[in-house]
Design brief:
InterPro entries: HP0268. It comes from Arcobacter nitrofigilis (strain ATCC 33309 / DSM 7299 / CCUG 15893 / LMG 7604 / NCTC 12251 / CI). This is HP0268 domain-containing protein. It is a single chain. With about 80 residues, the protein is an alpha+beta fold. It has one domain (about 1-80). Helices cover about 30% and strands about 30% of the residues. It contains two helices and five strands. It has helices at about 20-30, 40-55; strands at about 1-5, 15-20, 30-35, 60-65, 75-80. Strand 4 (about 60-65) and strand 5 form a beta hairpin. The longest helix is centred in the middle third of the chain and has 13 residues, at about 40-55. The mean pLDDT is about 95.
Length: about 80
């Protein structure tokens, strides 16, 4: 499954990443905070959280609002 990282600029396309790559990076670093684009489905984000917890990580997940409009948010995943 592929997820989309959060955009740095509103007009650019989000970069894709596979869950396996995220798990590899976490095993290497031990902990990291990832920001994902709002275009990811909530179901996919929950699958990521479940997958990381299955690998033995503690995961904190939330939506981060960065503006007043309803669609101005991103997902934050902090894995330890």
């Amino acid at each position: 499954m592929e997820l989309l990282f959060a955009r740095n600029e509103l007009n650019e396309k989000p970069k894709k990443v596979k869950i396996d790559k995220i798990v590899e990076e976490l095993k290497e670093l031990g902990e990291k905070i990832f920001y994902f684009d709002k275009d990811n489905s909530h179901k996919d984000m929950m699958a990521l959280v479940d997958g990381l917890e299955g690998e033995g990580f503690n995961v904190y997940f939330r939506e981060v609002k960065y503006g007043l409009a309803e669609d101005e948010y991103m997902y934050e995943v902090h894995a330890l």
